[in-house]
Design a protein that fits this description.
Elements: H1 3-8, E1 31-33, E2 38-47, E3 51-58, E4 63-70, H2 79-90, E5 99-105, E6 110-115, H3 122-127, H4 136-155, E7 158-159, E8 168-170, E9 179-181, E10 188-189, H5 215-218, H6 225-240, H7 253-262, H8 279-289, H9 299-312, H10 334-338
Bound molecules: adenosine-5'-triphosphate.
Adenosine-5'-triphosphate is lined by residues 45-46, 48-49, 51, 53, 65, 79, 97, 115-118, 121, 169, 182-183, 185, 331-333.
């Protein structure tokens, strides 16, 4: 992420009036007042390295998710600033949460983003299942929507670089069949001001999550749209493989790289352990692996292959998802915090 990109965010914070220090936001009932609304913290939804996401209630009686990030002098790049820039750019796109409000508290040093509240993450939804994976039909249907979100992001000149089940969630109420993409903290612009693909840098540091990282990331090579597609493919397998990805139990980056490389050769079959309908899935991986940094992705080919895999299995890719068949509703971590 370059400084030039940070400037492109167009982030114009609105100052909010509140004098309580950042840490008190952790308490239920704490109020954040902006020019638009008063937000009351209901509960913590999740915490990251530099901030947290809260479930908030507005003075108009609606609910929203509020992401708060500490402003750190030493950090060059604000993750939240990047998230706001991307959400602004994609506008009302189906797979992205809408921005409701945003601002900055200069004195206490934090930024906030109030956004549309969504439901549980794919990681949490999967954990709710007895077998800890989705059914084949749900997995492929959900993965297809996950790719639509990535396609939209790529269309706007960004790559995500951290695709994984925890960074996607289902919607609430009548949006339970819609998948949302979250967390653009390490996204990168791969298109320059002239709308050309940026010249790849000679070497790039590791970014993202080891389990879902593409080969290029392990090898310190510049990532492009096809690398997001590779991470997306690991995500798809993670949603449906009962034993998880073959490198699930490995922690060391180089061991994981080796396992990913082996799955391209003699150990190909270990990628699909327990799956019955693998021809179309393997066709997708062959296609992704044939792409280079600068290539334009044929997303339609991938959607079509997913549909064909469902047809082979006698399933409808648009059928209701596993969680739509259960009555349970709720935002991320709600279940675990209720059961504590
Ligand atoms: N709009 C939203 N509605 C409901 N829950 C959300 C929303 N946005 C994020 N969350 C939840 O909040 C938690 C933290 O979200 P997210 O990963 O975006 O935060 P983060 O601080 O960037 O985390 P990290 O630093 O680990 O990447 C996750 O459990 C996520 O599902």
């Amino acid at each position: 992420m370059s400084d030039e990109e940070e400037d492109e965010s167009g982030f114009k914070p609105v100052s909010i009036q509140n004098t309580l220090p950042f840490k008190t936001l952790y308490f239920q009932g704490h109020e954040i007042v902006s020019q638009k609304a008063t937000y009351t913290v209901v509960r913590l939804l999740g915490e990251g390295g530099f901030g947290a996401v809260y479930l908030c209630k507005t003075n108009k009686g609606t609910q929203c998710a509020m992401k708060v990030e500490m402003k750190m002098e030493k950090r060059k790049h604000s993750k939240l600033k990047m998230e706001i820039a991307i959400l602004k750019l994609v506008g009302n796109s189906k797979h992205f949460t809408k921005i409701l409000d945003r601002g900055k508290r200069e004195k206490e040093g934090f930024f906030f983003l109030a956004m549309e509240l969504v439901g549980k993450s794919l990681g949490d939804l999967k954990a709710d299942r007895a077998e800890k994976v989705f059914s084949f039909g749900t997995g492929l249907g959900v993965a297809s929507q996950c790719l639509e979100a990535v396609e939209e992001l790529h269309k706007h000149g960004f790559i995500h670089r951290d695709l994984k089940p925890a960074n996607y969630a289902c919607g609430l109420d009548d949006k339970r069949h819609t998948i949302y993409i979250l967390d653009f903290g390490i996204a990168r612009k791969y298109i320059n001001a002239k709308k050309e693909i940026k010249t790849p840098r000679e070497t790039v540091g590791f970014k993202g999550t080891v389990r879902f990282a593409p080969l290029s990331c392990h090898r310190n090579i510049e990532m492009g749209p096809k690398d997001d597609c590779e991470s997306w493919f690991y995500l798809l397998l993670d949603l449906i493989l009962v034993g998880g990805l073959p490198w699930k139990k490995l922690n060391e980056k180089n061991e994981v790289l080796l396992a990913k490389e082996e799955c391209r050769k003699e150990k190909r079959h270990t990628l699909y352990t327990g799956l019955k309908y693998t021809v179309e899935l393997n066709k997708i991986l062959v296609y992704i692996d044939s792409q280079a940094y600068q290539d334009r992705i044929d997303y339609q080919f991938i959607y079509k292959s997913l549909e064909e895999a469902c047809v082979s299995a006698g399933l409808d890719i648009d059928a209701p998802y596993d969680w739509e068949n259960s009555k349970e509703q709720g935002t991320s971590k709600e279940k675990s915090s209720r059961s504590k």
